[in-house]
Amino acid sequence: xxxxxxxxxDQIIKGLVPKVKKVVEDHSKRLWDRTVSRHLTGGNGxxxxxxxxxxxxxxxxxxxxxxxxxxxxxxxxxxxxxxxVHIGPAGSQVTIRPKNKKFLAIPLPAxxxxxGVPRGGPLDGIWGPTFIAKGVIFGFRKGxxxxxxNPMPLFVLKRSVVVPxxxxxxxxxxxxxxPAFVQDLxxxxxxx
Length: 192
Hints:
- The chain has helices spanning 5-39, 55-59, 83-86, 169-191, and strands at residues 60-62, 66-68, 71-73, 76-78, 93-96, 104-107, 131-133, 136-139, 152-158, 161-164.
- The chain is an alpha+beta fold.
- It has two domains: 5-95 and 166-191, no CATH class; 104-159, no CATH class.
- The strands form four sheets. A four-stranded antiparallel beta sheet has the order 6-9-8-7, with no helix packed on it.
- The two termini are 22 Å apart.
């Protein structure tokens, strides 16, 4: 008696799904590791972001692989709210404008830690008396003998800033993972 081709095909698909799921899972993890180690740890290059607080790198995770029927999906998730500012198509940029104020206050070196993280905002009260001159917020160093004598520039005021996106998901991530991913899928199909 001949086998029913529909039943045989269903059995083949049921056998393939767990194997494909494993490949998607493995390559999602590879993609995550590559993204964090290559693109979110600083260094030189137009495709890298300096690590300041580490929030973007810590919030980046491989997606849990999902199976819906014969469809298997996985990938990468960027959990930080500001990820879209830095991650997007090559050559694109994002314009940032103030939401509730007239100006953005861009921290200058005196207002940042060594890692480049702002010590606080201009309205946080940590800068002592401040004043604005020529679009710059100046303050005085607290706890020094020269307090109130030598103002230091803390923030520059801007109506907007343009940030170029530096990590292109297609060129830097998907094109990198695709050859090995296709090869692993081909090996599964050859095994059938």
